[in-house]
Request: fold
Amino acid sequence: VSDALAAALGLTVTGPLDPSAGDPEGCRGIGRVGTLPEPESLAAFAARAAKALPPTAAGLRVAGDPDRQVRTVAVCGGAGDSLFEAARRSGADVYLTADLRHHPASEAIEAGSPALVDAAHWATEWPWLDQAARELTAALAASGTTVETYVSRLPTDPWAFHVPQQHSPQAATP
Reply:
């Protein structure tokens, strides 16, 4: 899943975000770390991610200075807030994942974490679906079974719409 996510973002993968303990070469593990072809601002990277991922009601949430330069990117398809420390250790300038919770994200930013891009869980796994269909078809064909596979284009993100708030927090009254 994370390989497909990294490819959708145009990254050159350098390794896993959290290498598997039993892999002496350090090639297997959760998430991926990679580099962009050229450095770009966090705002430009967020726009890149928004274009690469399917649209969702919530869009992307971004934590960090919009002008911060980004070259090294850590990604984890699906929920990845358990990998904040791995993202920090990787030297990534930004970490893109899903399902970020308020306190862990706030603590990660305060601890000097990479900038954060929070996408919908479903959207971070979407780039993998075509690859999964191809691999399933090929594996079954290798065993002599012919099947037709179809990847549904039906969005399965549970969130249907987003309502932007129009008031300023200072204007709120108890």
In short: The chain has a mean pLDDT of 92. Residues 4 and 128 are 5 Å apart (CA to CA). The chain has one domain: 2-124. Strands lie at 12-15, 18-19, 29-30, 32-41, 61-63, 69-79, 94-98, 115-119.
